[in-house]
Amino acid sequence: MYIVPKLEDYSPAALDKAVQELLTAARQEAEAAAGENEWRAFRDRWMARKNGILTQINDLWLKAAPGPSKREVGARVNQLKVQVEEYVTVAQQRSSGSASKSRLESERVDITLPGIVRPLGAEHPVIKTMNEIVGVFRAMGFSVAEGPEIETDYYNFEALNFPPNHPARDTQDTLFIAGQEKKPQRDRLLLRTHTSPVQIRAMLNQPPPIRVVVPGKVHRADTADATHSPIFHQVEGLAVDTNITFCDLKGTLDHAMKSLFGSNVKTRFYPSFFPFTEPSADVQVTCFKCGGKGCRLCKMSGWIELLGCGMVDPNVFKFVEGNGYDARKISGFAFGMGVERITMLKYGIDDIQLFYQGDVRFLEQFG
Ligand code: DAH
Question: What one-character DSSP code corresponds to residue 322?
């Protein structure tokens, strides 16, 4: 290890020799410094203000130099400082380079290892069917609307021509939000029992003509079993314009059923009752299992009931009259269907609960 000698001889030749020895020693130490810690030790040994080699030179060479040699010695000591600083800098770059090399080495990633396989999800069969139904009507020029799942008594019942206390309300077992006894009945909140309230909301939003389908979730106070669920899905439809007739309703739904179940199904419109349509009908399609001959699926009737529909009752238009729905000038049809029921029929599923259990073995069959 280099130790700073005292200078006896201040001749230029002796000075050169001393400087050369010092620089050689500095260069060798610089080259030997590998890694961050050794570099720091090297820097401090040479450049520390207190007792570093450069400081020692100041004391042992410059301060001790006789008067006439001071200039000469001063110039050399300054050059030495510059040179040693450069060695320190170069050594730093080299040692940090090797540090990052070793870090890179330890963080090396083997890109040939097999990756983590994240299986792709699939559309839920209920959503898939709902989108299919919506798609069929969109192709016929219907737009799509949505409404809130927490609804007021007014939109869910009253404006759809279910008067307060009318027994027609009993056909839909309703889940009410608690603690609203102080509110007027029409403002009380409930979980919508059907998507029909969005008919009213859509007509308030847009004057006639209107053609709209409404997919969404609905709730009823039903006990879960193979064909019932307290939460299920519906797609609602509404078309209002001048001169809309029952023929338009029949043609539209016949086309939709053929699109969903195959072009060989036939439809029939069976008299029914809903407070918000007059006349009302149930749409039935020929049984797609037995083709109409009669089997267990269609209960030997040859027909399967799929949805409710009808011509919009003029009483309903009274609630939206202000937005241009004048029952003397316009007419319309409406329909509503249960998405789970249609999905079950389409795929031959015999238990509605399968949709809600999240069993991948069931769900992945619909990808
Ligand atoms: N909202 C009815 C229900 O949930 C279904 C329905 C029937 C909707 C006839 C309609 C319709 O728009 O015209 O039972």
Answer: G
Ligand 1 binding pocket mutation candidate from 218, 232, 335 (most atoms within 8 A of CB)? 335
Q: d(Cα 137, Cα 331) in Å, to the nearest integer?
A: 19
Using CA atoms, how far apart are residues 304 and 337, in angstroms rounded to an integer? 13
Which pair of structure tokens corresponds to residue 61?
Answer: 């060479």
Query: 37, exposed or middle or buried, with CB in 10 Å at 0-12, 13-18, 19+?
Result: exposed
Q: Is the CB of 313 under 6 A from ligand 1?
A: no
Residue 115, SS3 per DSSP: coil
- pLDDT of residue 102 exceeding 80: no
In angstroms, the CA 297 to CA 291 distance is: 11
Which residue reads 């000075």 in tokens? 15
CA distances from 177 to 34, 87, 180, 259, 358 (A): 75, 81, 7, 39, 28
Which residue is closest in CA terms to ligand 1's atom 4? 194
Q: pLDDT tens digit string along 225-278?
A: 999 999 999 999 999 999 999 999 999 999 999 999 999 999 999 999 999 999
Residue 309: count other Cβ atoms within 10 Å of its Cβ: 25
Q: Give one DSSP letter per residue of 220-280, joined into a string.
A: ------SS--SEEEEEEEEEEETT--HHHHHHHHHHHHHHHH-TT--EEEEEEEETTEEEE
pLDDT in tens, 173-227: 999 999 999 999 999 999 999 999 999 999 999 999 999 999 999 999 999 999 9
